[in-house]
C-alpha cells in the first residue's frame, strides 16, 4: 500500500466489473498493452481511501433502476472527502457515457456519464 496522503482527498472511482485490463478483483492483467501487471482489487483500493479519509467504513449501496450501475458511498466525516465507487456491471475497460475511442477499449455503458458525475462531485467537494 502507498503512504496515506497528508490531508484527505475526495475520491470517485468508476470500474467495470468485467475489466480485463485492470481486474475488478485484482490480480494479473490479462488484456491490453501492459500484460502481467499485478493490481490490487477495487475493494482494496477503495478501502485505502476510506481509511485515509476517515470516511464511514460501511458504504451506502444504491443500484440504479436497471441494476447495471451500483453506487457505493462512504461519507466523509465533515472534511468533504467522500469516497464513492461506481461499479458498472458487465462493462469492461471503458469510460462510461462516451463513445468508444479508436484505441484498445471495450464498449462503454451509457447508463451513467462518468464525466457528468465527476464534474458534480468535484464541484461539491472543494479542496480547502
What does this structure look like?
- It is a single chain.
- This protein has one domain.
- It is built from two helices and six strands.
- It has helices spanning 42-53, 114-124; strands at residues 11-16, 27-28, 38-39, 60-63, 69-74, 83-88.
- The longest helix is centred in the middle third of the chain and has 12 residues, at 42-53.
- It is globular, with a radius of gyration of 15 Å.
Helix content: 10-25%
Kindly name the structural category: alpha+beta
Following the backbone from N to C, one meets helices and strands in this order, namely EEEHEEEH
Query: What is the overall pLDDT average?
Result: 91
Backbone shape: globular
Name the poorly predicted regions: none
The value of Rg in angstroms is 15 Å
Distance between the termini: 25 Å
Number of helices: 2
Read across the widest sheet, the strand sequence of neighbours is 1-6-5-4
How many E-type strands?
6
Mind describing the biggest β-sheet?
Answer: 4 strands, mixed
Give the percentage of residues in beta strands.
15-25%
Number of domains: 1
Task: Write the SSE topology.
Blueprint: E1 11-16, E2 27-28, E3 38-39, H1 42-53, E4 60-63, E5 69-74, E6 83-88, H2 114-124
Parallel strand pairs: 1-6
Antiparallel strand pairs: 2-3, 4-5, 5-6
Amino acid at each position: 500500500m502507498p503512504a496515506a496522503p497528508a490531508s484527505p482527498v475526495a475520491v470517485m472511482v468508476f470500474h467495470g466489473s468485467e475489466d480485463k485490463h485492470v481486474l475488478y478483483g485484482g490480480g494479473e492483467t490479462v488484456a491490453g498493452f501492459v500484460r502481467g501487471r499485478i493490481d490490487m482489487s477495487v475493494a482494496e483500493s477503495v478501502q485505502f481511501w476510506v481509511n485515509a479519509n476517515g470516511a464511514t467504513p460501511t458504504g451506502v449501496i444504491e443500484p440504479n433502476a436497471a441494476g447495471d450501475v451500483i453506487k457505493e458511498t462512504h461519507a466523509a466525516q465533515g472534511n468533504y472527502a467522500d469516497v464513492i465507487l461506481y461499479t458498472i456491471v458487465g462493462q469492461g475497460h471503458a469510460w462510461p457515457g462516451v463513445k468508444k475511442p479508436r484505441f484498445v477499449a471495450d464498449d462503454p455503458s451509457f447508463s451513467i456519464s462518468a464525466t457528468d458525475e465527476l464534474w458534480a462531485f468535484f464541484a461539491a467537494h472543494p479542496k480547502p
